[in-house]
Amino acid sequence: MFYADFSPKNLTEKLTTAVVQRSENKDTEIRTDEMKDSVEEFMSAQSEVNRLRRELILQKCAKHPELNQSGISYTTYRHIYFSDKHKLLYCFIPKVGCSNWKRVMMILNWSKKNISEMLSDEVHEHNGMKRLAELSRAEQQQKLQTYKKFIYVRNPFGRVVSAFNNKFGDIVQYRKAPYFQGFAKTIMKQFRSHATATELKTGENITWTEFVKFLTQSNRPFFDDHWEEMFKICSPCKIRYDYVGHLETVSEDAKYMLTDLQVDSLIEYPSKSNSHPTNSTAKLEKAFRDLPKDNLKKLWKIYEKDFEIFDYPKPDFIGEYLIR
């Protein structure tokens, strides 16, 4: 029996198996090396993208010294969540994927729950996270100076259209939101000359044009943070963010940032459709082309610095109106 193990047939089988295993191991090593090279190339490319975005913000802010003359506003402190566990700060901007980034921060803070288990009310109203606004000035400065900081932005016009559709276009959600009903009733009263009693009472179904007229009136009204300018919310000319992501490229930007922070093994940014902007160029063009030209020009002036600071090009479909 002992010598049978070394028969020519068995030796051939053993040698063949060994060769196959070595070949498979070699293939695995090659694939591993290729994956490693691919990851390194991705991280290098994304690092350069992030560097250029940060550098551009510095350049644009230098052209607007008035944006850095006063201290950081309470609004900005109120919009910055922090994680002591990971020494991380996040300035959230509504309508820029902030729901999912809040979920990410919650998981990083407490290492529990899957993102899919977190309901909207928990994320926005009862997330248990602290903001810089709750701390002393000394604590605020200490964290700003020593923690990593990130911000996500999006096309400013796409954002304001998204805010309108979300808060006033979805009638089911609108009827659950008395706060935004207050805006709509005011808009209805001011800008619909023949509004019915029911329309004035409910504020339902205000139009996009009416909303823009409200935003662009001579005496600027109160801006909710869903349509407040992004640079006013997060003060990029006063805070040097380490990571500047764009919603339009959130998949790549999030993967890079989480990997660079070495937390990619703990959390992955959701790759669902609601993690991406829904405003196509065609839809944006339609939304703005029908606006009165004067209101369009005024709307551009409101969001012009957001376009400039965060490197979004002036939309081609309105350029013809702005030079007249």
UniProtKB/TrEMBL annotation:
<keyword id="KW-0808">Transferase</keyword>
<keyword id="KW-0812">Transmembrane</keyword>
<keyword id="KW-0472">Membrane</keyword>
<keyword id="KW-0119">Carbohydrate metabolism</keyword>
<protein>
    <recommendedName>
        <fullName>Carbohydrate sulfotransferase</fullName>
        <ecNumber>2.8.2.-</ecNumber>
    </recommendedName>
</protein>
<keyword id="KW-0735">Signal-anchor</keyword>
<dbReference type="InterPro" id="IPR018011">
    <property type="entry name" value="Carb_sulfotrans_8-10"/>
</dbReference>
<keyword id="KW-0333">Golgi apparatus</keyword>
<keyword id="KW-0325">Glycoprotein</keyword>
<comment type="similarity">
    <text>Belongs to the sulfotransferase 2 family.</text>
</comment>
<dbReference type="InterPro" id="IPR005331">
    <property type="entry name" value="Sulfotransferase"/>
</dbReference>
<dbReference type="GO" id="GO:0016051">
    <property type="term" value="P:carbohydrate biosynthetic process"/>
</dbReference>
<dbReference type="GO" id="GO:0000139">
    <property type="term" value="C:Golgi membrane"/>
</dbReference>
<keyword id="KW-1133">Transmembrane helix</keyword>
<dbReference type="GO" id="GO:0008146">
    <property type="term" value="F:sulfotransferase activity"/>
</dbReference>
<dbReference type="Pfam" id="PF03567">
    <property type="entry name" value="Sulfotransfer_2"/>
</dbReference>
